[in-house]
């Protein structure tokens, strides 16, 4: 599907523009956030992102229909359209969100491909801070909702997202009936009129 004018405009936004949105929103109050395009990541950032992703998700991927395919996942993570929100604690990556602006089913969305928090920093508010940042960014660029995919087996993530106001999206295979698919697509509407 061809991106809408809103999505095309959002894709063209610089990291500095998005960073300024967050600075004025209070979303950076808990911990400083860095916003970068995939192409702006340093090699040390990419390595830290990959290591955190692999530590948190490799076990889940190997038991799901997606399977563990590191080459394909690296391509997705570091695609030129990918954007990152990074949080460092004591000069080490503590959390990251990888997202993109996308048009799907005639709706403009912020699609959260990954939200990963290092196990030493879980339940410290970083996940909520990152989700608030996505909402601020989505609202500013007139996106309709934040969308994400979560494995059903990842019950702690499901609980987190549902507690943050996400529900099963109409595009999820599990929307109308129980399905044998091992993931859900969740979404949260944004304040766009």
UniProtKB/TrEMBL annotation:
SUPFAM superfamilies: Acyl-CoA N-acyltransferases (Nat). GO terms for molecular function: histone H2A acetyltransferase activity; histone H4 acetyltransferase activity; protein N-terminal-serine acetyltransferase activity. Pfam families: Acetyltransf_1 (PF00583). Residues 36-191 form the N-acetyltransferase domain. Gene3D superfamilies: 3.40.630.30. Belongs to the acetyltransferase family. NAA40 subfamily. Keywords: Acyltransferase, Cytoplasm, Nucleus, Transferase. It comes from the Eukaryota. Its main location: cytoplasm. Its EC number is 2.3.1.257. This is N-alpha-acetyltransferase 40. It is found in: Cytoplasm; Nucleus. CDD domains: NAT_SF. It catalyses: N-terminal L-seryl-[histone H2A] + acetyl-CoA = N-terminal N(alpha)-acetyl-L-seryl-[histone H2A] + CoA + H(+); N-terminal L-seryl-[histone H4] + acetyl-CoA = N-terminal N(alpha)-acetyl-L-seryl-[histone H4] + CoA + H(+). GO terms for cellular component: cytoplasm; nucleus.
